[in-house]
Amino acid sequence: MAERAYEVRVAGLVPTQDLLEELSDVEVAEHEFRTVLTGHFADQAALHGFLHRLRAFGLEVVEVRRVTATEPATEPATEPATEPATEPATTTPTDETGTPP
Question: Which of 30, 46, 79, 87 could form a disulfide with 41 if both were Cys (CB 3.0 to 4.6 A apart)?
């Protein structure tokens, strides 16, 4: 199963860089009165373990939500479909009814 990304919002600002190192590989975004930690977890057990560690550090979890994993922005190829170069089609003369003579 692929890892899933989650945003975990905690009350207040995460206090120290040392604490962030203990929380594993998560991205941190600080807002006025909250901190948003974004991490990738293999399964729900890993997510719950992470939440338990946050509570053990005395952080108040106020929201957890699953987000789409961010991937490098790559544009899909949008080249117009072209047909391979071919010999010009030969035409057969037709009469007024559209049938060959």
Answer: 46
